[in-house]
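Sorry, can you check?
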Amino acid sequence: MVVSAVAAVMAANFVWTGTPYPSADPDAVARRLKGQSDRVYDDFALPGKYGTSPGRVDTGACHHRGLRGIAHIDEARSDVHSFDLDWSVPDVPEATARDAQQRVRRRLLRQGWKLTHEGDRAGATFRELGFRFENAEGDQVDVRWNDSTVTLFIGVYAPCALVPDGFAVYDWAEADWHPQD
């Protein structure tokens, strides 16, 4: 009887809180994203005349899971963050951008990443070429180019993870990055 009561409490707690977020060291995540970003930059193999914008590892909001997420729908957790690093390369002609994207795509496929979004699209005043890949850990690489700005946009992303107490989001030494560093 006691065992079934304990099991019921545990099951109710799981339904309320949902699957726990994995733990992560923010600096290790930043280094991982920088490494993935560096590989994208290397894959681009752009001639030296192309400069890049600086990037910064930023954090994103993550929410409660399970039924608690419904009860606190607009409340982000302070102990759980996602991470992303975005940068761009301006003034890249379409043919150069397509070649660069194909090199990234081939490497990611060889390394077992899965294509999760094919982002080629066009509107009345723009055309965008892009894609997103995801690895087994949930990290994502997003590469886009559009003809209105002739800019390659790069984003690498790590999913929500539980961070250590005292993690200071806006005072973070590992956050600044430049693809040519």
